[in-house]
Amino acid sequence: MCTCGSPASLRTSNTRRNPGRAFFGCSNYNMKGLPHCNFFKWADSDQEREQELVKIEIELLRKKDELQKTQEFQKTREELRKLEEEVRKTMEEVRH
Q: What pLDDT is stored for residue 33 in this prediction?
C-alpha cells in the first residue's frame, strides 16, 4: 500500500544501474492528471541482492579457476608435444 492510500504496483526498473530489477511504486505514478505519492520500495531486499551478487562472484571465481587450469593443461600438452618431437628426432639420429 502506498503512502497515499493507493495500492502499490509491481514495476520493473529500466535504469542502467538496476536493469530489470523489480520494485513497488505508487500505482498512480505517470498516470496523467492523477495525484501520486513518491512511494518506492525494491521488491527484493538488499540482503537478497547481496546474496545473489555473492553467488555470481563465486561462479566467476570458479570459471576463472577453470580457465587457468585449462591454460595450464594446454601449456603442458604443448611441452609434451615438443618433448615427443625431440625423442622422435633423437631416435632417428640413433638409427642412422
A: 63
